[in-house]
Amino acid sequence: xxxxxxxxxxxxxxxxxxxxxxxxxxxxxxxxxxxxxxxxxxxxxxxxxxxxxxxxxxxxxxxxxxxxxxxxxxxxxxxxxxxxxxxxxxxxxxxxxxxxxxxxxxxxxxxxxxxxxxxxxxxxxxxxxxxxxxxxxxxxxxxxxxxxxxxxxxxxxxxxxxxxxxxxxxxxxxxxxxxxxxxxxxxxxxxxxxxxxxxxxxxxxxxxxxxxxxxxxxxxxxxxxxxxxxxxxxxxxxxxxxxxxxxxxxxxxxxxxxxxxxxxxxxxxxxxxxxxxxxxxxxxxxxxxxxxxxxxxxxxxxxxxxxxxxxxxxxxxxxxxxxxxxxxxxxxxxxxxxxxxxxxxxxxxxxxxxxxxxxxxxxxxxxxxxxxxxxxxxxxxxxxxxxxxxxxxxxxxxxxxxxxxxxxxxxxxxxxxxxxxxxxxxxxxxxxxxxxxxxxxxxxxxxxxxxxxxxxxxxxxxxxxxxxxxxxxxx
Length: 475
Description:
Layout: H1 10-14, E1 19-23, E2 36-40, E3 55-56, E4 61-64, H2 70-86, E5 93-95, H3 107-111, E6 114-117, E7 136-142, E8 145-150, H4 153-165, E9 167-169, E10 175-177, E11 183-187, E12 195-200, E13 205-210, E14 224-227, E15 233-241, E16 244-251, E17 255-260, E18 266-270, E19 277-283, E20 287-292, E21 297-302, E22 310-314, E23 318-324, E24 329-334, E25 337-345, E26 351-355, E27 361-362, E28 370-373, E29 380-384, E30 389-393, E31 398-400, H5 406-409, E32 416-419, E33 425-428, E34 441-448, E35 451-458, E36 464-469
Helix pairs in contact: 2-4
């Protein structure tokens, strides 16, 4: 998260010099930077660089904000576990809660030795003028505090790992932290943006957010906004069409659009879908498919010829569509049915859709709602229903609920589910903001190995139906 803090930090004005060490490589499994360069302010040849103070870790409590995300909570806990593994009896994690009337910048709290993880209510972790990219972090000494900050929650977690590499054991067997010059700045290049699309029914728009920068998904933080004439935008996704990145949307009573993502211009639009369109998908043959729940049909449109060439197949309560380049089929879901279709353009220009019966499967529960790829595993599909979230194996024809992160992800009434390339998962379920089926928030489960840290994405002005990982790839 790009940060612009409001309070000046005392140590910056007191330091004779600031040394900045920038790690440019990815963090390895042990948390060490694989490539590191050092930069410092030019020193007068008669000036002696300040000594790095010796700080005994056992004298410090680890403190995080009461409002810390699941990622920061997990990173802080892992930091304390590692400290305890080095020497037993470490005090563990505390939050920054204070009794009423206690000033964290004065008296005992101000003098207390603490390792501050991320922004807290202590003045030392609210730094004026410090701007960090989502992959950047800093670690520094500030009087009685050691401060770890990051441009995103994942960068804070990276700072915790790097902090452990700064531990040194002295001749007496005690662990000290040595921060060169008292200030270390680094970068974890493995941290990438988390771009999402939010189908906002309240504001009649699809908005693009980078949730590695802002967990507030109010429209003021949107990178792009696409406005629609009708409120109930039911589906959106990115795809590539004729060399362009395009945004798809199914919305309104019977409408769908293909929009040039860069210019915002329409490439194709129709108001002839079946009633209550819920999903739209482009296929490489030049066909747009739109599934409609109330109309109980999937309709296929020749993008080049507009609405004049259209074909329909019956599909009760059809809710989800996904093209599969591996099998060259269009998957569709509705009620408790998963089906696959071969789609092409006939000689007359009309789309042709033929079911592939051997690929059909019965979903264990009813109310099938969302269908998305499991990025990173071309054999699996995400399928959500009224009561569960499954991963479906195409090769085994089986539905699984024992996937990584299932305790967080496998819930009822999930309207949309998808994952980023790093395995982090995005979901949304209704909280009845604006309409009974919409929500003012979404959930991001950031993956660290086999564990996940939960982040709540909240909006002050939105009413979302679906949120999507902004990935134009089919799988």
